[in-house]
Write a structure and sequence with these properties.
Layout (H helix, E strand, L loop, with lengths): L5 H17 L40 H10 L3 H22 L11 H14 L10 H17 L13 H16 L27 H15 L6 H5 L5 E5 L5 E5 L22 E3 L9 H10 L14 E3 L9 E5 L2 H5 L1 H9 L7 H14 L4 H8 L4 H5 L6 H13 L9 H8 L1
Helix pairs in contact: 1-3, 1-5, 3-5, 4-6, 5-6, 7-9
Length: about 425
Amino acid sequence: MAHQTQVELDEDIREIFRLAEELGVTETDGFFTEEERIQPAPTVTTAQLPTATQSSRYVDFSEIDKQHLVEKQRKKNTERATSCAVNQFQKWMTAMRQTKTRPVHEIPPVELDGYLGSFFAGVRQKDGAEYEPDTLTSYQRGIDRYLSENGYAYSICRDLQFRYSQETLKAKRSQLKSQGKGNKKNAAEELSEREDDKGVIGTHSPEALLFLVWLNNQKQFGFRGCQESRQMLWGDVALKKTVDNIEYLEFNERENKTRSSGKVNEQPRAYPPKAFAVPDDPTRCPVFAYKQYALGRPPSHLGSDADFYLAVNYKPETNLWYKRQPMGANKVDTILSTMCNKAGIAGKKTNHSIRRSTIRRLHDSGIPPTKLMQLSGHRNVQSINHYAVNSMDDQHRMSEILSRSRGSRVMPSASAMGFMAQ
């Protein structure tokens, strides 16, 4: 059976988090209730795994042990996307048939194809509104992943046995798009260069410095929206020098749920991302901001295992600008929206806005997509091209060019001028 591509999987995960954000859910761990979750595979602790002893160099892993090891490394976001899709389908089945349904993977192909076609055509949000086209597609892919994991013989996305539901979904997507759906109205907007600095970042206060350091890390190290910032430790960044005595910061990436190579000796990125000093402009120098941030941290939190982002001490009695406790996960997740609120910047700005604007600026500056991938960590060039969309500034310039261009240099008549003034 054909497998889902990484690009498709990324799209599904983005769609699930878009739905969570649309519903006002900021902590995605609470996105599903306990009864809505698919029961996960049993967890296994390190103590439960077979370990080598002094008398035994080799360990005998049973099939169950190996399954536990694989399950433990599965991406949590993928599990959530799959769980959301299957739960929605199961709830629809129960509501439509008014009876307890069988597990989805036990339904024969012909019968399941009919149910899926009706599901794609008739499923609605809680308030009765239609879903976005991409949401329905993410549901299809999520159900397909679930079936594959449970040994189903066919792919509902590709095999001819599910031609009816595939065609129904295609027709439904076309209908929704004709109604104006699918225009990515909830997508995070880029942060323009004019909006990059509105006085809320700098070295003049604990909060402004924290914002500046966070912004530098997001841009220079190619971070994703939230997870890498939450997990970041002080020891993940090292201050180094080149042979020409130029200082730079180097981010040493640890494997996490978002980036896991899964192959021996394979690095998550082609090289450790670096942020070089800008000696002639301290206000734009990531190394200078890092050093100032280090001076404001408690000495007990300069160890490699300390959290990178610490809670702000708004009333410091000493030169310590930050508390001996980590910044809350929800506050880390909403740093950019907090900055934008303080600066009066309108629009839908999330932490992902930095990633969008960073990739697009480098792309517009002539950096090839293959080199951008080495910084951003993308595995597919198509994912980079997804960011190559005209920004608001680009659209403004294009509109100005068209407004100033004229097919004729003849001035309009006085009557026409009067009409246009009305």
